[in-house]
Design goal:
Blueprint (H helix, E strand, L loop, with lengths): L30 E2 L29 H8 L3 H11 L3 H4 L14 E2 L6 E7 L4 H9 L1 H9 L4 E7 L5 H17 L1 H13 L11 H10 L4 H9 L2 H15 L4 E2 L1 E4 L2 E3 L3 H10 L7
Parallel strand pairs: 3-4
Antiparallel strand pairs: 1-5, 2-4, 3-6, 6-7
Helix pairs in contact: 1-2, 6-7, 6-8, 6-9, 6-10
Length: 276
């Protein structure tokens, strides 16, 4: 990620030969406990490893794009399922209130609108959001003072989800905000299949040590109760908001698809301190 202040994770920006690509809209989906909604950049009809030089968004043509790219009745049914919002998500209207004090932040809390990102380190859609949109969101929205992004833990997929969330919380508490965002990128880079126990204690600790996190303090944090309580509190807020999947994004309290363009539009529609 590009560095905006001491709270940001530095990373080189990717551009094309002719400079940043103009804003575009792309199909998207999220990872849920059984149903998916269009909330994160999808590989359907796109390059899942495309440079994150543009703000992407969801599109009303998700079903058409998926249907023409997949064959078979069973596959078509599956395609429809991953493009429709969940019943719970469809009930989300109006402004939600979250407790975000002490949570990791990308950017300056005093600048711009509040973008809350609930994520799971075992979630493929969350990894794709990291790979294709976070740098663009940082450059276009955070660096320009339009927004700051708050990370909230929502581990639910498997044991690795819970283990990685706790490790990331301990890295945040012992290494600081900047190291947390770098650690988050590392975990997504090393993410394994949902059916595997990829986030082993050894892998998580080694990744923290590689970022110069004090191993003694890290271990003490893992064995303690405070970090786990913070993770549990984040997950409880995610569930209380009626969300069933990740990534789940709220802009100034309003449910928003997790595309950079969608977030940008939501910042205009729901300015800080404004109404709907």
């Amino acid at each position: 990620m590009n560095s905006t202040d001491s709270s940001d994770r530095p990373a080189p920006d990717k551009t094309t030969d002719s400079g940043p690509v103009p804003l575009v809209r792309r199909p998207a989906q999220n990872h849920t406990r059984g149903t998916d909604s269009p909330d994160a950049p999808s590989s359907a009809g796109t390059d899942s490893h495309a440079p994150d030089t543009e703000l992407q968004g969801t599109t009303g043509n998700n079903k058409k794009i998926l249907l023409v790219s997949l064959a078979g009745v069973a596959t078509i049914v599956g395609a429809l399922m991953v493009t429709l919002p969940s019943q719970t998500d469809r009930r989300q209207s109006g402004q939600q209130v979250f407790r975000t004090e002490g949570r990791p932040v990308l950017g300056n809390r005093a600048r711009g609108g509040e973008v809350i990102l609930f994520a799971d380190y075992s979630c493929p859609a969350c990894r794709q959001l990291e790979e294709t949109q976070i740098k663009a969101i940082t450059r276009e929205l955070v660096d320009t003072g339009q927004a700051h992004v708050i990370f909230m833990q929502s581990p639910f997929i498997n044991e690795s989800s819970h283990r990685a969330a706790l490790a990331a919380e301990c890295v945040y508490r012992t290494g600081g905000n900047d190291v947390f965002w770098r650690y988050t990128k590392t975990l997504y880079d090393q993410q394994g299949a949902e059916t595997t126990d990829w986030a082993t204690p050894a892998l998580l600790k080694a990744a923290a040590t590689d970022l110069n996190v004090d191993p003694v303090r890290y271990t003490a944090c893992i064995r303690g109760t405070d970090a786990q309580a913070a993770v549990d509190a984040d997950l409880a807020q995610h569930r209380a908001a009626g969300m069933q999947g990740t990534p789940a994004v709220f802009v100034n309290g309003y449910r928003t698809p997790a595309g950079g363009r969608d977030i940008q539009n939501a910042l205009k529609a729901h300015p800080p301190g404004g109404g709907s």
